[in-house]
């Protein structure tokens, strides 16, 4: 799992879900509202394939504008596909 800095926290994808940890490295129960609009996390998108893979990709940028992606895509069960795109 790759962690991305965002407003004094770090965010990552874990089994298709965005997770967060504080500066001490303790994983939080939810993502704090104060970083929901942080420019470090540009957007996330669901990934669903016809071959049974599912998950999500987060697109992010550093202060210099370099673009990064953090992804969690794997062969998935129905629940994994639903978390990536509940529609």
Summarize the structure in words.
By secondary structure, the protein is mainly beta. It has one domain (4-84). It is built from one helix and six strands, in the order ββββββα. The chain has one helix at residues 78-84, and strands spanning 4-6, 9-14, 17-21, 41-48, 53-61, 67-75. The strands form two sheets. Strands 1-2-3 form a three-stranded antiparallel beta sheet, with no helix packed on it. It has a three-stranded antiparallel beta sheet with strand order 4-5-6. A hairpin with a 4-residue loop joins β4 and β5 (53-61). The two termini are 26 Å apart.
SSE diagram, text form:
Elements: E1 4-6, E2 9-14, E3 17-21, E4 41-48, E5 53-61, E6 67-75, H1 78-84
Antiparallel strand pairs: 1-2, 2-3, 4-5, 5-6
The secondary-structure class comes to: mainly beta
Distance between the termini: 26 Å
What is the C-alpha radius of gyration, as a whole number of Å? Answer: 13 Å
**Overall strand count:** 6
Low-confidence stretches: none
Overall pLDDT: 75
**Going across the major beta sheet, what is the strand order?**
1-2-3
SS field, number of helical segments: 1
Order of helices and strands: EEEEEEH
* Number of discrete domains: 1
Amount of helix = under 10%
User: Rough shape?
Assistant: globular
Q: How can the largest sheet be summarized?
A: 3 strands, antiparallel
Approximately how much beta-strand content do the residues carry? over 45%
């Amino acid at each position: 799992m790759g962690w991305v800095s965002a407003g004094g926290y770090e965010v990552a994808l874990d089994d298709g879900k965005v997770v967060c940890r504080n500066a001490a490295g303790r994983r939080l129960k939810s993502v704090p509202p104060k970083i929901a609009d942080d420019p470090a996390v540009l957007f996330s998108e669901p990934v669903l394939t016809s071959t049974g893979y599912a998950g999500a990709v987060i697109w992010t940028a550093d202060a210099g504008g370099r673009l990064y992606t953090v992804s969690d895509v794997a062969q998935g069960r129905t629940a994994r596909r639903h978390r990536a795109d509940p529609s």
